Amino acid sequence: MSQSTFTRIEDSSTGKKLAGPVGWFDDRLGLAAAGKKNLRKVFPEHWSFMLGEIALWSFVVLLLSGVFLTLWFVPSMGEVEYRGSYAPLYGIEMSQAYASTLDISFDIRGGLLMRQIHHWAAALFVAAMMAHMLRVFFTGAYRKPREINWLIGVGLLALGMVEGFAGYSLPDDLLSGTGLRFVDGLIRSIPLVGSYLEFFIFGGEFPGEIIIPRLYMAHILLIPAILLGLIGAHMLLLVYHKHTQWPGAGRTQENVVGYPMLPVYMAKAGGFFFVVFGFTALMGALIQINPVWAYGPYNPSEVTAGSQPDWYMGLSEGLVRLMPPLETTWFNRTWTWSVFLPGVGGLGILFTSLALWPFIERWITGDQREHHLLERPRNAPVRTALGVAAMTAYACGWIAGGNDIIALKFGLDIFAITWVLRIGIFVFPVIAFIVTKRICISLQRKDNETLTHGWETGVIDRSPDGGYAERHAPLPDSSAYQLTSSRERLPEIEEVHQQDAYGVRNPKYRKQSLRAKLRRFYYDGSVDKPTRHDMDHAAEHLAGGGEHPVELGDDFQGVSETGVPRVH
Ligand code: HEM
Ligand code: HEM
């Protein structure tokens, strides 16, 4: 045995040799030292940090329930006559994939429950990812040094959607076949290569006989493996960068305030896994999802009215429904823009903008610093407003995906809905942008007001001359720190000139002036946080009775989480 191995055993973690099975493993893996460092890692607390965890745990539920389904699902498009226990379909010709899905639903013990858990977990997985992404976006958590983790996230979201779609297509019922037909249309609409791609993917003309086995391979092996790798990288980077935290007393860009991984966080996260599992199991047990037996086997010549994709595919469906007909004939060929632009272009624009945003924002603001304190959405009004505008556009496209159902349920005219959304998808985001930006700026002003004039106590004094005035009390230091510590001071935006004082042309004029314009747009309307001098001055003013300082007597109950003092 080499000397170095011997030393490692003796030195592991505390320098003491561990006893029993733990010692046996530590002798061979030396994990105690690594564990000691990492298990004490501190994780900050906030409810919004649970969204990423919901994504993580619903993925685990998908893996577990998915493995169960693979035991019984037959990924074949070979025709069989149905001989299972669902009487209405007895004797009908169908693919083995569909027949096995019916078997899972009716003849395998716990099969229907597992299918429903799997499907609900898939819907939850994508929803949690999106909510988590919005939390990261609106708090600026993607800023340096977390851009790579953001990019991994964008990849996870895209792959998660493809994975969900592949799963949805597997049972080969009428609904899933209709979804596949839609995607076939998207593929074919791609100029020049569309029909070649279709033949390549479907092994000939749609639907062919190999798409289900191919999707199966992608669904249970290829994509989950990539997802697993990416999630691993996502978590490693999270540990490496450490988690961001909300500003607050004692929290700086250099530290992390929270609970250690072991035992507190581990117990919480472990418990949370069971909550997510329990929740999806309850949904799977109580709420029906994708009753494939009601749709019948896939037949390319049939489509049922009211066919709907899973919720996360609603956007592409809706955008295609919104697009007015647009076709050109060039070189003796038809170019179908009405499918390509909304279907492929729409999602392309969405994902490209998501991936590029951290870099675009950084270019505009010129901010090269690291950020470990989260930014309140109000303190980045243009970012917040752009996010809300994008969500509004998404909502318009998404609602359009169900225009037929909305028309039927609410007795409305489908063309009226389509036209409102067609115009709305351009107009509503602009309104949302303006309104959100104004709200953010008003909230910034309110913060400034609280910082310089103290908080409103709700105690009204009547003066001898009959006037009324509310008493203000100075903000405790911790609350003032919370309101100001992550708030950026507004930068000076320099004028860009085409020539310098000596008449020499500025070769970078166009780039610099575009950047200055965007920077002005980015900071437009924002108000700067009060300076130390303003705050000291205000404190003196308050203490001097200018604003009727209040004695904080028994009614003062400390400061709430949001920094507002509690009074009863
Ligand atoms: C499979 C999907 C995903 C899983 C399992 C996952 C998991 C997590 C977890 C557990 C955290 C730490 C807790 C939290 O802040 O919520 C986290 C942080 C983070 N995630 Fe994700 N995430 C996923 C998708 C995404 C997506 C779609 C994005 C963005 C496009 C993203 C970007 C980030 C970033 C930038 C952080 C660091 C945030 C910080 O330190 O404040 N993630 N992720
Ligand atoms: C992010 C991960 C995953 C997502 C979003 C997802 C989504 C889906 C969806 C929506 C279905 C259709 C369910 C239905 O019939 O109502 C499905 C089916 C299926 N999934 Fe997954 N799944 C994932 C991971 C997995 C994994 C890891 C496996 C296997 C190890 C798996 C195996 C299956 C099988 C065999 C089916 C067909 C059975 C059936 O439809 O009843 N899935 N998946």
UniProtKB/TrEMBL annotation:
<keyword id="KW-0679">Respiratory chain</keyword>
<keyword id="KW-0472">Membrane</keyword>
<dbReference type="GO" id="GO:0005886">
    <property type="term" value="C:plasma membrane"/>
</dbReference>
<feature type="transmembrane region" description="Helical">
    <location>
        <begin position="412"/>
        <end position="436"/>
    </location>
</feature>
<keyword id="KW-1003">Cell membrane</keyword>
<dbReference type="InterPro" id="IPR016174">
    <property type="entry name" value="Di-haem_cyt_TM"/>
</dbReference>
<feature type="transmembrane region" description="Helical">
    <location>
        <begin position="117"/>
        <end position="138"/>
    </location>
</feature>
<dbReference type="Pfam" id="PF13631">
    <property type="entry name" value="Cytochrom_B_N_2"/>
</dbReference>
<dbReference type="GO" id="GO:0046872">
    <property type="term" value="F:metal ion binding"/>
</dbReference>
<feature type="transmembrane region" description="Helical">
    <location>
        <begin position="216"/>
        <end position="240"/>
    </location>
</feature>
<keyword id="KW-0408">Iron</keyword>
<dbReference type="InterPro" id="IPR005797">
    <property type="entry name" value="Cyt_b/b6_N"/>
</dbReference>
<keyword id="KW-1278">Translocase</keyword>
<dbReference type="GO" id="GO:0022904">
    <property type="term" value="P:respiratory electron transport chain"/>
</dbReference>
<feature type="region of interest" description="Disordered">
    <location>
        <begin position="543"/>
        <end position="568"/>
    </location>
</feature>
<feature type="transmembrane region" description="Helical">
    <location>
        <begin position="269"/>
        <end position="289"/>
    </location>
</feature>
<dbReference type="GO" id="GO:0008121">
    <property type="term" value="F:quinol-cytochrome-c reductase activity"/>
</dbReference>
<feature type="transmembrane region" description="Helical">
    <location>
        <begin position="54"/>
        <end position="74"/>
    </location>
</feature>
<keyword id="KW-0813">Transport</keyword>
<protein>
    <recommendedName>
        <fullName>Cytochrome bc1 complex cytochrome b subunit</fullName>
        <ecNumber>7.1.1.8</ecNumber>
    </recommendedName>
</protein>
<keyword id="KW-1133">Transmembrane helix</keyword>
<feature type="transmembrane region" description="Helical">
    <location>
        <begin position="335"/>
        <end position="360"/>
    </location>
</feature>
<dbReference type="GO" id="GO:0016491">
    <property type="term" value="F:oxidoreductase activity"/>
</dbReference>
<keyword id="KW-0249">Electron transport</keyword>
<keyword id="KW-0812">Transmembrane</keyword>
<feature type="transmembrane region" description="Helical">
    <location>
        <begin position="150"/>
        <end position="170"/>
    </location>
</feature>
<dbReference type="InterPro" id="IPR027387">
    <property type="entry name" value="Cytb/b6-like_sf"/>
</dbReference>
<keyword id="KW-0479">Metal-binding</keyword>
<keyword id="KW-0349">Heme</keyword>
<feature type="domain" description="Cytochrome b/b6 N-terminal region profile">
    <location>
        <begin position="21"/>
        <end position="247"/>
    </location>
</feature>
<feature type="transmembrane region" description="Helical">
    <location>
        <begin position="380"/>
        <end position="400"/>
    </location>
</feature>
